[in-house]
Amino acid sequence: MSEIKTFPEGFLWGGATAANQCEGAYNVDGRGLANVDVVPIGEDRFPIITGEKKMFDFEEGYFYPAKESIDMYHRFKEDIALFGEMGFKTYRLSIAWTRIFPNGDEEEPNEKGLQFYEDLFRECHKHGIEPLVTITHFDCPMHLIKKYGGWRNRKMLTFYERLCRTLFTRYKGLVKYWLTFNEINMILHAPFMGAGLYFEPGEDKEQVKYQAAHHELVASARATQIAHEIDPENKVGCMLAAGQYYPNTAHPRDYWEAMKEDRENYFFIDVQARGEYPNYALKKFERENIKVEMTEEDLALLKEHTVDFISFSYYSSRVASGDPAVKEKTAGNIFESLKNPYLDASEWGWQIDPLGLRITMNAIWDRYQKPLFIVENGLGAVDTPDENGYVEDDYRIEYLKAHIKAMRDAINEDGVPLLGYTTWGCIDLVSAGTGEMKKRYGFIYVDRDNQGNGTLKRTKKKSFDWYKEVIATNGASIE
Ligand code: P53
């Protein structure tokens, strides 16, 4: 283990959230309806996010947690003050597209939406916090989905470009770190989230997904170009739902399967970071008769405007096998993986693997040689507050400590450049996968339950002071 206990100077410690999972106020100040709003909690959630079942509006008998969430829209000053108290250097948040363009295809933005984020960014700077902004975190205006079919349609490039140009112009000097699409590879697993895709019966899903992915990749390159033009200080990153695949055994076919699975995900980052479609993907398209329409201009744009850094989420490693008889899967995750017998799991079945973070960091660095940014990591757990609302979340502290150590080793022992670390759900928020409030990640407890009951009161957990100390000592407080 590393002798050096601290992190590089200027390391960006912080936390992360996403608009639809924390803001609430879904119809306030002109905000339009988005895909993420109409995904209910309960058993229909999964088929909707995978694009199997349509739900284009609110329906009777369902509870939609994103409507109010934790109401950060009205409480951001209090919440950012708490982040400031923890010593955050950065706060990752996302823009709700429909606050800026309620339908998505308007010519002019909604001033109230723009003002909201301006106030929020100014509040961050007041506390010495550098915002890190995800332009779209799984959200897409519902109108664009109904009218154009979401990202399957090339017209999305125009609407997304307009959004980006508006943001880069308005927030010049206030924001310099941008992420174009949250977990871009999630289009393969949850295509209604983010890409706004649903499928007609009998439709070739792979065809639709990869065409939509191409549109997102080109949109991302275009955004990078515009960001750099508007302000050369801007740094634009891609964002991968990461987690190294391990072969289930030393059998070569298992290794081969793990490599193929990794490539399914790296595909997106290969394009965003290297600027070209990788050969294995072109061969796959050929073999599987996937016809992705792309122009010469698209390819030139991809080539010229690669990302400045690579950000990713990491919750767990994954396992693959080439043997069809091996079937035992992990539970509760959109990302299917075989079970790893060497690892423990969270209450939701997500397996816990701190060394896997070091392995993943090294794999990504070896592949791209661009600085990394860990923008999500954490433990979703059930918290039980005492009568004062206080939670002793030692389990969360243990999880984070182990991952921070692994990250420190990757930096100090392996020489992997890492810009920063933002833990997921630094304040309790709605789960993307399940829609629950019960699955908590925060340093700050929020009084609200799965049905929407509760006062929304914020209370510091034990991990709050622990993380504050980690940041104050730049990591040295962790043995
Ligand atoms: P929840 C699955 C696997 C990896 C990352 O997830 C994932 C998911 C979605 O469930 O999403 C990211 O809330 C995502 C966040 C999300 C977080 O992981 O299901 O970027 O929006 O909340 C945690 O526990």
From TrEMBL:
Keyword terms: Glycosidase, Hydrolase
GO biological process, any: carbohydrate catabolic process
Active site: 376
One GO molecular-function entry: beta-glucosidase activity
Domain of life the protein comes from: Bacteria
GO cellular component, one term: cytosol
Gene3D superfamilies: Glycosidases
Pfam families (UniProt xref): Glyco_hydro_1 (PF00232)
Family indicated by similarity: Belongs to the glycosyl hydrolase 1 family.
Name this polypeptide is given: 6-phospho-beta-glucosidase
Organism field: Globicatella sulfidifaciens DSM 15739
